[in-house]
Amino acid sequence: MNIDSVDFFYASMPSVTYDADGSQDTLLVRVRSGSDEGWGECEASPLTSIAAFVTPRSHGVCQPVADSVLGERLDSVDDIARIAALVRRNSMDLLQAPHTFSGIEIALWDLLGRRLGEPVWRLLGGRRAYPKVPYASMLFGATAQQTLDAVKSAADAGFRAVKVGWGTFGQGSVDADADQLAAAREGLGSDGFLLVDAGQIWVDDVAAAAQRLPALEAAGATWIEEPFLPLAYRAHAELAGRSGTVGVAGGEGAHSVHMATNLIDYADVRFVQIDTGRIGGIGPAKAVADYAAARDIAFVNHTFTSQLALSASLQPFAALPDHRICEFPLTPSELARKITAGRLELVDGELLPLDAPGLGLDVELEAIRPYLHDVEISIDGHALYAGEHFGGTR
Amino acid sequence: MNIDSVDFFYASMPSVTYDADGSQDTLLVRVRSGSDEGWGECEASPLTSIAAFVTPRSHGVCQPVADSVLGERLDSVDDIARIAALVRRNSMDLLQAPHTFSGIEIALWDLLGRRLGEPVWRLLGGRRAYPKVPYASMLFGATAQQTLDAVKSAADAGFRAVKVGWGTFGQGSVDADADQLAAAREGLGSDGFLLVDAGQIWVDDVAAAAQRLPALEAAGATWIEEPFLPLAYRAHAELAGRSGTVGVAGGEGAHSVHMATNLIDYADVRFVQIDTGRIGGIGPAKAVADYAAARDIAFVNHTFTSQLALSASLQPFAALPDHRICEFPLTPSELARKITAGRLELVDGELLPLDAPGLGLDVELEAIRPYLHDVEISIDGHALYAGEHFGGTR
């Protein structure tokens, strides 16, 4: 069976704010092959990712993503890896290509899982799926008290792990950051996992990051995430050498397997966080999970959007029992909540990857129709892309 | 003075082939501030880079590039670095952003140089510009004889260095590659620099690459370029440990300073090749040049397009006398040749960076008008971009 069509659906909230909240828009991807279909989701900047699918060819290794996907054979999981290699080669000089392909690749797994009646994690070789400890992901409050209240409400809702991040953390005084961290710990209680996300705020300034280590240790933080630009390996490794019980975490922006494994090999991260919606999909994320597991590095998903993205991001490490922590978007936008009918439910503070064909969730296109955008891209009057969704067919 | 407008001009040859010839299309950028203007060029996939400029905001750190540029102050070189930091922060999750910003940043330097009456290399702190030894960059011929003839004609034209690459190199037998390399050396003569570009063909297979080392050494190759995926540092370092007199080269795809310096620190490249049209412009390329120079690693430009791109790519190392080799696009497309009025001429096999305000070349918009494309991008009927060029104004 060949890939008959790839359709994109760009949706956003009526108002998109400056908050670091990635659930405010989405680019959903529907792939059809014969009578089967599958769905995936691309992380960030829908219009740019659509453009990378339809852009005219610049030269032999700067081809649009579409040209490596439409019409290709899709009979087995090997075909997904084969198509991924085509994209990597043919779109070598097209920087956005991995983000575009991520949603497509996820949809290919979903489609194949549905066709074969298996959850994706089983197609990846897993025998059973193990429960994860989801952490509630939230932004720091404007005040320490707001942070305390928000973390406490997550703890009250059954979360044993909470991540706080962004806001003004790292930009003001060391004392103000210490107050925020203490408040988060107080809200969480003494037992829970406290995770902290610095959002690259110190660029590559190890001294600035190290000033926060005492407060991070005092608050019993499990990790400090993205202290620096993701490719500043030396800064990461220097901080990791001084951070004691606090592990360094990172990887969400990785757009290739090597970009993630280099964080393990050269940046000394103790937690590698992978977004299947960016790295090129589920296959590359699984390669990173296996690499991490072999080196006793914890694999963690990065997910700040929908339940569809959450289910996709759990597949690579669903069958790894020792990799327990997972990110769980606690307060996604109304749009993100409406994307799927079912959802992954918390049971006793744990989350079990779904045991259902594909990703195990159905996309509710009618529910999100009010949020969909008409996109038109044309060159010299010739439409490359037009309408609420794009029927890329070959 | 503020940045009043940023306009893009997308042009391509009437027919764009599958050859690895990056001069088949272009995305030119014109920036205006007060009565001054400057020009730059983005490498690869014009439509995608335009989309990254105008795309709606996804969230606080996934903003369109336009929002960090339009209306910003531009009084000194520090403003260029400040704007670059804004783009890096505000477009953190927008993968294509560095490619889009590269052309803008180059135009900012050109504009500032024209305003101040100085060549860009002097604004970068250089006292004088030193001549470079340009290498003629070409693809392997379909046969060894074709390669010999093509290299010989470059040598006859005065080139003392030639780079051959792509074609079927690395994909067929080791003997066939050896024949090609011997032919290239024969065409060049015994004295010239012979450079070889593998175009990532061995992915991360060190053994496959190492099989070609004897022939590379026999042909006296100065470097083997991009043997692997650019982030496969370990593979690079392993090959570098075995490659004797043949240095490993790479870096053209670097889209941040760290991505380039990591190649020096972890991949053991002996030559770091930077495309100012991809890495984020001239400022980041200068940072890499300084980093390389301090470590006795040769900085080399990557340029396969126009003379405008060539002039931009020479600025970061124009004032470094010991960094001699530079890439020179030997047979750019008709379009690429028409972009500028003047050009950098070879004198006794050497190329001297221009000593004229800005980049020292004027863009001939009328000459390339037949190649320009009308681009339209609209969302829900609202045009984000329309016309032969885009007047992004604030």
Automatic annotation (TrEMBL), chains A, B:
Protein name: Mandelate racemase
Database matches in InterPro entries: DgoD-like, Enolase-like_C_sf, Enolase-like_N, Enolase_C-like, Mandelate_racemase_C, Mandelate_racemase_N_dom
Residue span, Mandelate racemase/muconate lactonizing enzyme C-terminal domain: 144-246
Highest taxon of the lineage: Bacteria
